[in-house]
Amino acid sequence: MTRHEHRTVRHVLVRRIVEVRSSKRITPHVQRVVLGGDELHGFVSAAPDDHVKLIFPNAHGELVFPTPGPNGPEFPPNALPSPMRDYTPRDYDAERRELIVDFVIHGDGPASAWAEQAAPGQRLGIGGPRGSFVVAEDFDHYVLAGDETALPAMARRLDEMPAGTRVHVLAEIPEAADRQPLGSQAQFRVTWLEREGTDAAGSRLLELALRELPERPGDTFYWIAAESRRARAMRKYLAEERGVPKEWIRATGYWTAAGADDEEE
């Protein structure tokens, strides 16, 4: 068997309508929404950093689903499109048919605004996940580095890691009160990096913490998710300055700062 062999799993794209079962603020900047319904039957998420497309009610309170077109998603003519955003499935209970999604509350945008007022009985559309990137489980060490938007994926990855795995999490958050309880069978360490008022796009806490990590014996896989330009910079540092093979790095822009390009890694 090839060492450090990642897998890509493709899923049948399914669109579903679900409803809010519960909604609560778990930290000052994170709203946890539990979605449920019979249409979640058969839902599959094979990797901790999967994403689903959440489809929110439009200004008329309607869920308007797009269909695939030659230039991307196309909405019915004369219909007001529903806003759509990508989110990580934090957890899924197949028996209860309940999906947990954590929303970062940042004061603007349709997803944040919806999550702040989410209440039981409200409906939401879901598409996907379309595919999963399953990271090899035979690395000697794993480093997970991300801001608050990456916390659901990092927390879920910790949940699913087998006993004996060595993991170091670098978690950048707005303030100390945004720390979340994390657990795992793995041997893990968490370094919380609190911005305390610094703009998330301009922060360099993750970058500095990554540079300060000591060299470890054996092979290390790096998973990074943050603002797009920051994620690219960290990947470049690992590849060019530390000589980490590109297959041992997965760096993704989870959001894009105003005025920046939106290229995703």
Automatic annotation (TrEMBL):
Positions of the FAD-binding FR-type domain:
13-136
Coiled-coil segments = none
The molecule here is called: Siderophore-interacting protein
Family that this chain belongs to: Belongs to the SIP oxidoreductase family.
